[in-house]
Amino acid sequence: MEDLHHVHIFASDIDATVEWYCKNLGGSVAYDGDFGGARNIFMNIGRGRLNIYDQEPRGELSGTYHHIGIQTDDLIGLHERLTQNDVKFRSGIREFDNWRYIMCPAPDNVLLELFQIDIPKMEPGLQAFFARS
Hints:
The chain has a four-stranded mixed β-sheet with strand order 1-4-3-2, covered by helices on one side. The radius of gyration is 16 Å and the shape is globular. The model has no long low-confidence stretch (mean pLDDT 87). The chain contains three helices and eight strands, in the order βαββββαβββα. A hairpin with a 2-residue loop joins strand 6 and strand 7. The chain has two domains: 57 residues, 2,3-Dihydroxybiphenyl 1,2-Dioxygenase, domain 1 (Roll); 68 residues, Signal recognition particle alu RNA binding heterodimer, srp9/1 (2-Layer Sandwich). By secondary structure, it is α/β, with parallel strands linked by helices.
């Protein structure tokens, strides 16, 4: 069985990037050091992992990925905390039945989707996809 392990991003200012994820999303550094010939910082954000590579982002904006999705149990509280930290959003909280989300940029224009869902109200396939293990 395979599991998605982490999202790997480049950072033009690795220290500022780590500070942003810690301050705004409660991230914690699990490792900071040389890995594969360059400084890498491995972070935990809730149950997920983020690998931040000390190198300028490549190409125009985001390349082939669109966004990083981060699930929360309190979207309103998270929105308020990020607003207090001067994070700018593409729009207010959008709601579709049992799904609520906001989009905002992290350092180096990494697009984040912050979302909250009511899993019991979803069809079985979606419940399995979004369930937290």
